[in-house]
Write a structure and sequence with these properties.
221 residues; mainly beta; seven-stranded mixed beta sheet; five-stranded antiparallel beta sheet; 4 helices; globular
């Protein structure tokens, strides 16, 4: 799964990676959690666009979000058969820029946090789904979820799940909902190569969403 992630690259670096038209400016974030706003990149009329969305997907058919489960992760396995994700897989796939994410290893009653990043230190992108939910008065909320899959060999000792990381050469295909159907999209992505990521045990500061600073990334003592 993915319950917290990090964005620390300068906005211009993320714009170069994902080639969206807008030029947003935003501060680094070291402990992004579900229900908070997250950046997404989607394709509209042949161009990529940046937007902010609530982390926690709300399907358009939901009547009351307060009574609906928080869908911040979407399992890749069987995703096209699930009513909550089926429409978004067909029409509203997106990318979510990140510099890394946290995962916790259970050891009895304790959990040890790890920061997972690309070995290169470069930013990358999760596979995401987005939906626009409208209330009875016509107000709209942009929402999104991160797609997950079984962990690769690097992360399996920490957790059995991991976010789906889209290779840069597959950005166009994942975003192109007009020409790449949902079944084809699933076949494009999966576990990251075992040599792509590294995991570093970090301070338990990250356990609290109130802690959102560079100190979260300090290696554990």
């Amino acid at each position: 799964m993915c319950g917290r992630f990090v964005i620390t690259s300068p906005p211009d670096d993320l714009r170069r990676l994902l080639a969206y038209l807008e030029q947003p400016n935003f501060p680094p974030r070291y402990n992004i959690a579900p229900t908070q706003p997250i950046p997404i990149v989607r394709q509209e009329h042949g161009a990529r666009h940046f937007a902010l969305a609530r982390w926690g997907l709300i399907p358009s058919w939901v009547k009351d979000p307060k009574t609906f489960a928080l869908l911040f992760n979407a399992r890749l396995e069987g995703i096209n058969d699930k009513p909550s994700y089926r429409a978004a897989m067909r029409r509203r796939r997106c990318l979510i820029p990140v510099d890394g994410f946290y995962e916790w290893r259970k050891e009895g009653k304790n959990k040890r946090p790890f920061f997972v990043r690309a070995k290169s230190g470069a930013p990358f992108a999760f596979a995401g789904l987005c939906e626009t939910w409208a209330d009875r008065d016509g107000g709209e909320i942009e929402t999104a979820a991160i797609v997950t899959c079984e962990a690769n060999e690097t992360l399996a000792p920490i957790h059995e799940r991991m976010p789906v990381i889209v290779p840069q050469d597959k950005f166009d295909a994942w975003l192109d909902c007009d020409r790449i159907d949902a079944k084809q999209a699933v076949s494009l992505v999966g576990k990251a190569p075992d040599d792509f990521l590294e995991a570093i045990e970090v301070s338990p500061r990250v356990n609290s969403v109130k802690n959102d600073s560079e100190e979260n990334l300090a290696p554990a003592a």
